[in-house]
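Follow-up to my post from last week.
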Amino acid sequence: MKKCTVAGMLVLSMLLLALPASANKLEEIKAEGELTFALTGQYPPFNFVDENNQVTGFDVQVGKEIARRLGVAGVPVTTAWDGIIGGLLAKKYDLICGSMAITPQRLETIDFSDPYYRSGAQIFTHKSSDITSVDGLKDKKVGVTLGTTYEEWVRKNIEGADIRTYKGVPDMVLEAANGRISAFVTDKIVGALAIKEKGAPLKLVGDLLYEEKMGIALNQGNPQLKAAINEALTAMKDDGTYHEISMKWLGIDVR
Amino acid sequence: MLDWGIIVHYFPFLVQGALLTLKISVIALLFGFIFGLLAALLKLSPNVVLRWIGGFYVWIIRSTPLLVQLFLIYFGLPQVGIDLGPFMSGVLALAINTGAYNAETIRGGIISVPSGQMEAARSLGMGSALAMRRIILPQAIRMAIPALGNNFVILIKDTSLVSTITLVELTLTAQRLIGSTYKPFEMYLMAAFLYAILTTTTSVLLSKLETKIAVERR
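User reply:
Got it. Predicted complex:
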């Protein structure tokens, strides 16, 4: 009988902890005084952990600025990219503000704000590689981050590529530098920065594969929250705050 | 070869991560022991239904990976309206998991106590519950300590899996710092070192406990 009581208590405590579903996410966030947004923390310079073990970068500052304009504190949460949408759907955080490209496929399950920056997909190889274009990737080992648009693109467009999936860009930078993969595909700005700032022995190959627009992801059915984010984004772009953040982390205005 | 500047600068952050690992381990260990004890008693119960419940728990947990159990609790349960935070999810998954292994260890300990002990206690007028608590369990746990210690060490190492559900414990601290430093060798070495400290301390404490009990017994 004792065991039944314990089991009962467990179930009860679980039920008590379950958050009641709220009709208006925006009001809920304002009541809590906290806006949580997810990112991998392994995507410098957009989001990463600095030398003081603090999560920082372009995405983080944009997320915090939006939270500030909503009158709440912005709290970044680091999570693996391949589970980041799952976490949003499971309401583990309010937003994904971690360089997620807006795609029709993702729009089927989640919602996005207006784009907050533009970039594109780029091939990177070791400095000494003889690959000169996308055609050179046939039957080669190509790295991508699991669950990215890059992964999808490589799977569709590069014939016979031996695709290796990774948890983050830094892993691929190390792998390409060590010669374990012939190339990897990721965001142009992210890869270019790894070369410039960290001295990674890599180079950009060919033109941009395609352009992408990144948005801040939220759960569907939250029109008030979406409107508030878009309003804050527009205001940031208009008053120069956005330009300042972009110049600080990326050296260019990426709007 | 090793970048000592990196090690000196980042070591305190890894220690911070190790403290969360320790906290998760201790709580999961405590609940894991309780779950294990309850499940062992269930499995040894004369009641068929209770025995079946205990057996089912041990079977389902031991036949599925911890990572899948963790994801079920963290990502799966919210779908049916149960939203546990990352810390609760992590601790619960670890406690339930290690509990199943503890159950078998403790059950083994109980079985190894000669049946004459129970008979003697009962003939002195003790009820079976009292006899179990006062006579059988103290001997059973004593015998189970080395194997339980093994489970505890495995539990500490398994906490690295909660790095996948946003808990910035030791492993995720290292991973995140690799993202900006590109120094996997130094970071993972420091993490391994701190795990070794945690597990070795646990083993030493348990073997001390074992010796103390053995002395008392004499």
